[in-house]
Specification:
Elements lengths: L12 E2 L7 E7 L4 H4 L3 H15 L5 E5 L4 H8 L4 E4 L7 H4 L2 E5 L4 E7 L2 H4 L5 H13 L3 E8 L6 E2 L4 E5 H4 L10 H12 L3 E5 L16 E5 L2 E6 L6 H14 L10 E6 L19 E3 L2 E6 L3 H13 L4 E6 L15 E4 L1
Parallel strand pairs: 2-3, 3-4, 6-7, 9-10, 12-13, 15-16
Antiparallel strand pairs: 1-5, 2-17, 5-6, 8-9, 11-12, 14-15
Amino acid sequence: MDTKMRAQPQVKRRRPGEFEPHAKTWMAWPHRKDLYGATLPAMQRAYADVAKAIAQFEPVSMVAHPDHTKSARAQLGADIEIVALPIDDCWIRDSGPTFMKREDGGLSGVSWRFNAWGRKHEPFDADDALAGRVLAYEEAEIVRSFLHCEGGSLACDGDGTLIVTETSLLHPNRNPGLSKAWVEQELLRMLNLEKVVWLPGDPLDLETDGHIDGMCCFVRPGVVMFEYNPDPDDLHGRILADNLAALKSQTDARGRSFEVIPIPEAYDVEATSEIFARSYINFALANGGVVMPTFGRPSGEEAKAAVARAFPDRRIVTVDVGAVVPAGGAIHCITQEQPL
């Protein structure tokens, strides 16, 4: 593989923070019985509930496989746009584009390579092409990278800083043979950023290999929410604490130390699979709202209070995604915001 750095694109682009205004949110309709079996109908209902919750705040476009648009329409109703495109799976945070805004006001986006989190599920060729197809549908500029990268790996503050994890982006199942320095430079170049903050990540995550969106998100530049587990003996809690310590030892692109708003993980929820996403921070921001997971446990009230402190001017809507999280993700994983 030729890893020679290419020239920086001439037109300036910016990756907005997720907390900035949106034009819409994208989702992708689940349809794979071979992957989800008997849970597929419940999973589809959960996706519909998330889409309808977000639609209270902003438009939603749902990508659906051409053979499954009728099923999507039947459950989504008339208010949600359905876009028929080839897809393999339903995690558009990872397979969709990383949207950018051009300095001339136009819409742009990065189309990363996608290999289903290190070839964990096949096929993935349609999802590898999905970002470009979504951008073409929006008549947006397509900026291509051959770096294997998923949107859930990226936390951007809209002000020059990116937070990522080593366990995901440097995993040999994504980018074998590429150095940390090369990956960092490609991220900076593609997203027009100034600094990458590396966290160690999560070796216990068997699906995404420790995406950042399972532990951390930006509230605004210089301020993050970060998950914790109150049990000092919990192994995952110690991993979260190690990542938080790594974050606190660094500064952002403007030289600021990070202000941290803690949010509990769903520590009182029993995992029903090896890849169960026991996360409240895996929420979606919308215009004036936050759509966050609920599991019907006391930890959920603690998490909701933390989100209210972080986003006091937004209305919080909770959605039961119990049918989704055993597959390894929650609301952030199934959504992708398009900036205004």
